[in-house]
Amino acid sequence: MTRLRLAALALLVAACRGPTDDERRGDAAYAAGRTGEALAAYRVALRADTSGRLLAKVAASALRAGERLEAAAAYGRLAAEDPSRADEAADGLELVAHAAEREGDPDALRAALLALAEVAPRRPEGRVVLAAIREGALGGADVARFLPAAVAAAPDPATADSLLLALGRTLQRSEGCRTAVGVYDAIRLRSDAVRVRQAAEAATGSCALELGRAALDSLSAGGAILAPAVGATDSSAAAPRTGQP
Questions:
Q1: Could you identify which of 53, 79, 149, 155 might form a hypothetical disulfide with 119, taking C-beta atoms 3.0 to 4.6 angstroms apart as the criterion?
Q2: Do residues 108 and 115 lie in contact, with contact meaning Cβ atoms separated by under 8 Å?
Q3: Each residue of 162-205: pLDDT tens digit?
Q4: Residue-by-residue DSSP string for 27-84
Q5: What are the φ and ψ backbone dihedral angles of 134, each rounded to 5 degrees?
Q6: At what angle do helices 68-81 and 106-119 cross, to 10 degrees?
């Protein structure tokens, strides 16, 4: 029998494999509401079987047991292992994101959003992304990645402006005022929300001060470099030429 036939046979056997004793124990525990015990059993079963069926059970029990990072990872694997269950995985990732937002878990919130962006790019909600930005769960690159979808999904202009303000603050921390000030200017011109506009105006003023100080420091440093050069030129001009009396 060729290696190709052996590989095909192994896949067939794996596809036909039924639940193991560990999976059955997990099922019984999950039905009884003992989600932590169910998760432990499913973890053991997962060592021998990475089917979508078992990954879905790991993800659901992890979410109910409060293991949100593990749930996000399992739902992401579910979509990768069985693309026909991508919608189910996306629904689960949204549940993880909402639970992480509710419980103040920025690491799980970021993991769920990143996995959701891979599984269903149009699914991340503006409100959840905004919460992730406010909690510091997303860095500059992540914010830029999610912002268009988040602004498009924003339920009202005020939420969209809040997202832009959060983006400006993130850019200011990560890349500096030169990049962020353009975002703040856009908010000042477009926003009808008084608090958001005032926050953008304050940030613009702070950035203007920071950029002005940086320009002065640059000029001062340039002057310090030029001064010795000017002195050297004057001194060489005053020195007598060779052969002069």
A1: 79
A2: no
A3: 888 888 887 888 788 888 888 899 899 988 889 899 999 999 99
A4: HHHHHTT-HHHHHHHHHHHHTT---HHHHHHHHHHHHHTT-HHHHHHHHHHHHHH-GG
A5: -65, -35
A6: 10
